[in-house]
Amino acid sequence: MSGFKANVINEMIKLCLRRKSLCFMALTALLPAAGAILVSRFQSGLGVTAATAADFPIWMLGLFAGLLLPLFIFMAASDMFPGELENGTAKLVLTRPVTRLNIFASKHVSMVLYICIFIALGLLSSVLASFFLEAGGSGGRAAGLTQSLLAYGAAVVPLAAIGFAAMLLAQGFKSGSGALTLCILLYGLAKLAGLLYPQFVVYSPTDYTDWYMLWIGGAVAWGKIFGIASLLAGWGLICFSAGYFIYDKKQL
């Protein structure tokens, strides 16, 4: 267990200290502030209130969960597997006194933690940026914060399923850029198919990046939430199992 924990810490350090990760963290922190200032000036100029402090973090979550975070996830997945082959560190990892299963599992745990870091950063920056806007809504900022906590927490689940799928796809490449390109292409096609033929993508995790909307607002649809959670858990389990089978048989 100590070896597994050490490997998780090592993977997190490698992910978070990459220049691209630091740049995206800065973007995640600054984008809500820029968006809130623009919305505030737009509303002041027109004399209307389109967004309040209570709902602004949810607006930002739509951008984070639907576009930015999947891109971060694909970049992380392409670095974890083909990236290690490119820079020659894949063999070094296997020389540690840790089984392949522990190495593989630690990468997936690191991916979930990586997503949680960006989600937490997005939540914090969005809540702080919302002070540029009027409180609005019933309950004001306090009610909005509660809704935001629920929504951002729920958003981790579909993003983790997408991350596991990306890690499975990435193992088929020796080039990080190739893995990243395919992940982005497939994600874009899945989103487009969801708009044009929604009935064909109901079993895809890409169709549920906005499932956090079920957790907020009026009565919570627990039956639908449980069904989607089971689907996403199934995706995660299948991708993890298939990915480990490939990783275990791979000759490095």
Structure description:
The structure is a single chain. With 252 residues, the chain is an all-alpha fold. The protein is built from nine helices and no strands. It has one domain (2-249). It has helices at 2-16, 19-46, 56-80, 82-87, 90-94, 100-129, 140-170, 176-196, 222-249. The longest helix is centred in the middle third of the chain and has 31 residues, at 140-170. The mean pLDDT is 85.
Characteristic key phrases:
252 residues, mainly alpha, globular, 9 helices
Secondary structure: elements and pairs:
Elements: H1 2-16, H2 19-46, H3 56-80, H4 82-87, H5 90-94, H6 100-129, H7 140-170, H8 176-196, H9 222-249
Helix pairs in contact: 1-6, 2-3, 2-6, 3-6, 3-7, 3-8, 6-7, 6-9, 7-9
User: Roughly what fraction of the amino acids lie in strands?
Assistant: under 5%
Helix content: over 70%
Q: State the oligomer.
A: single chain
User: Sheet bearing the most strands, described?
Assistant: none
Shape: globular
Q: Extract low-pLDDT stretches.
A: none
- Averaged pLDDT: 85
Order of helices and strands: HHHHHHHHH
Q: Give the count of structural domains.
A: 1
- How many angstroms separate the termini? 24 Å
Number of strands: 0
Output the structural class. Answer: mainly alpha
- Contiguous helical run count: 9
Radius of gyration: 20 Å
